[in-house]
Specification:
- The complex is a heterodimer of chains A (112) and B (115).
- By secondary structure, chain A is an all-beta fold.
- Chain B is mostly beta strands and 115 residues long.
- In chain B, strands 2, 4, 5, 6, 9, 10 and 11 form a seven-stranded mixed beta sheet that branches. In chain B, strands 1-3-8-7 form a four-stranded antiparallel beta sheet, with no helix packed on it.
- In chain B, a hairpin with a 2-residue loop joins strand 7 and strand 8.
- The relative contact order of chain B is 0.33.
- The chains are: A mainly beta (112), B mainly beta (115).
- The interface between A and B is medium-sized, with 27 and 28 residues.
Chain lengths: 112, 115
C-alpha cells in the first residue's frame, strides 16, 4: 500500500497532557503535512514541513521530520477537550505527480 | 486559509443513476485538485489527481469510466459517479492546492448514499 502508517491508532489522554502522534512513510517526499478531521467533516490543515526542515512550531503544535528514518511526529501540548479529533499526516511525493497521500490516522480523545 | 467549496454535502440516489459532485476553489487558482474516498473510521484513499486542462491521473484500482473527473478551469473540478451502486456509497472529499509546495485545502465532503 502507498499509504503511510501512523501510531498509535488511537490515543486517550487527560486534558492538559501532551499528545504525541507518529507517522512513517515509504517514499521520497517533497513535504509532509498534518491535518485534523472532526468526525464526518472536511479536513483542516495544521502545518506543512518541507523535506529540508527538521522542526516546525505553530501555537501548541510541534512537528518534527526525520527524512533519514522517513518519519514525522506531531506533538500537541497542553491538550484541550476541543482537540478531540482524528489527525492525519500526508506526504507530497517527490515525483512528477506530487500527489498527496495520507497516513492511516490517529484518533485522539482528550478527556475533560 | 483558502476556501474550497464542495457541493452537495450529501446526496441520496437510486442505483443505476449518475451523481455529479462539484469542487470549487473560491479565492485561489487551483492548479491541482485531488479526489479522495473515505470509509467510516478509515483514512482518505486517493482516487485521482487532476491538473487543470489535462486528463486526470487515476490511482490503481480506481475505474476511470466509473468515476469521471473533469478539471476544466483553475477553480472547478467535478467528479461524476456513473451508474452508481450501493457499494459506491461513501464519503467523497476533494482537495485543491496552488502548487506542490503549498498546503492543500479541503472541501467539506460529500456523503453519497446509493439505494
Amino acid at each position: 500500500s502507498q499509504q503511510g502508517e501512523e501510531d498509535p491508532q488511537a490515543l486517550s489522554i487527560q486534558e492538559g497532557e501532551n499528545a504525541t502522534m507518529n507517522c512513517s512513510y515509504k517514499t521520497s517526499i517533497n513535504n509532509l503535512q498534518w491535518y485534523r478531521q472532526n468526525s464526518g467533516r472536511g479536513l483542516v490543515h495544521l502545518i506543512l514541513i518541507r523535506s529540508n526542515e527538521r522542526e516546525k512550531h505553530s501555537g501548541r503544535l510541534r512537528v518534527t521530520l526525520d527524512t533519514s528514518k522517513k518519519s514525522s511526529s506531531l506533538l500537541i501540548t497542553a491538550s484541550r477537550a476541543a482537540d478531540t479529533a482524528s489527525y492525519f499526516c500526508a506526504t507530497v511525493w517527490m515525483d512528477s505527480s506530487y500527489k498527496l497521500i495520507f497516513g492511516s490516522g490517529t484518533r485522539l480523545l482528550v478527556r475533560p | 486559509g483558502a476556501v474550497v467549496s464542495q457541493h452537495p454535502s450529501w446526496v441520496i440516489c437510486k442505483s443505476g443513476t449518475s451523481v455529479k459532485i462539484e469542487c470549487r476553489s473560491l479565492d485561489f487558482q487551483a492548479t491541482t485538485m485531488f479526489w479522495y474516498r473515505q470509509f467510516p473510521k478509515q483514512s482518505l484513499m486517493l482516487m485521482a489527481t487532476s491538473n487543470e486542462g489535462s486528463k486526470a491521473t487515476y490511482e490503481q484500482g480506481v475505474e476511470k469510466d466509473k468515476f469521471l473527473i473533469n478539471h476544466a478551469s483553475l477553480t472547478l473540478s467535478t467528479l461524476t459517479v456513473t451508474s452508481a451502486h450501493p457499494e459506491d456509497s461513501s464519503f467523497y472529499i476533494c482537495s485543491a492546492r496552488y502548487g506542490p509546495n503549498t498546503e492543500a485545502f479541503f472541501g467539506q465532503g460529500t456523503r453519497l448514499t446509493v439505494v
